User: Fold Palmitoyl-protein thioesterase 1 from Fibroporia radiculosa.
Amino acid sequence: MVFHRLLLLTSSLLLFSSETIGSPVLQLLAPQPRPLVIWHGLGDTYGSPGILEFISLVQDVHPGIFVHSIHLDTDLKEDQRATFYGNVDEQVDLVSEQLANITELEEGFDAIGFSQGGQFLRAYVERYNSPPVHNLITFGSQHMGISDIPGCRPWDLVCQLARRAAMGGVYSEWAQKNLVQAQYYRDPARMDTYLSSNHFLTSINNELAATANNTYASNLSSLSKLVLVLFLRDDTVVPKESSWFGSYAVPDDKALHNVADKTIVPMRLQPLYLQDWIGLRALDERGDVLLETCPGEHMQVTRDCWEPLVKRFVGGATTKYVVPDREVLLVQR
Ligand SMILES: *[C@@H]1O[C@H](CO)[C@@H](O)[C@H](O)[C@H]1NC(C)=O
Ligand SMILES: *[C@@H]1O[C@H](CO)[C@@H](O)[C@H](O)[C@H]1NC(C)=O
Ligand SMILES: CC(=O)N[C@H]1CO[C@H](CO)[C@@H](O)[C@@H]1O
Assistant:
């Protein structure tokens, strides 16, 4: 039995056999869609019915796509707990190892972050990005933090305990290392306390000039597209404009602290953007930051909303082809 190696022509859909085969074997193969990595949100798990359904719908849109759902623990309960409790720097580090371990991802992938999973994936891009992210889509994420800790469903005890602990001392050393939401809590009315206590968000947003890291900017601007989705009726993320890098203005007068109608500073007026601390402006001026909306409440990811985005920004053709032996196809004669 003779095996003939086939040449793989990456620029076309055809595979030609080597000349040693009498008549050329032509085979029509589809290019392999770029893989997708998903990071679920607060209170969710990597294998929840909602996430599994989403994955299967994405696979209907892009047949054959490889999808990885990020987990911090293979146990579902522990994975859910890790959305409330843990050190986010360590979590992102663990995820970078997890992703680097997966051979299907080695040429890069598109990524979708749901809610807090979005800013955590951005941290991955800025700090690791190996394997690299092509397009990053974030749904209802808190890129400029939150100015209030989200409420919990009445029966959700894990959430309620975490929330109570966070409200108690959101900027305490303990909270900043152990409570996930505290690590992206950013209250413009207490900016000094935030800047001196927060580790995670000040880092990924390069808000501290003394420790700013230029790699974050070059890595983030290496994205092909950054797609930021805001839920128009989001009242969980305060303010909802955080999904678009907006935040409340820093009150210049302490007396303004309790003023109810707070002004939103949009992305393009943020110091982070104007001085391009993280490469966001470079990306935007290239036309590669897309501000999108979903009509519903926080994480009401309706099909009308996600499907056009998944069609446009996920599963693009790679130069890889669906072949049994990954790089070469062996034909038995
Ligand atoms: C990566 O793979 C190695 C070897 O299979 C394994 O020991 C390790 O736990 C994996 N790391 C992560 C973070 O998944
Ligand atoms: C900047 O970030 C990169 C990527 O995480 C890291 O390797 C490097 O040590 C950081 N540099 C400084 C000065 O902290
Ligand atoms: C795509 C890209 O720029 N990736 C770089 C991100 O930063 C790390 C250093 O931490 C580099 O190794 C990557 O090449």
Remarks:
- The first strand starts at residue 3 and ends at 8.
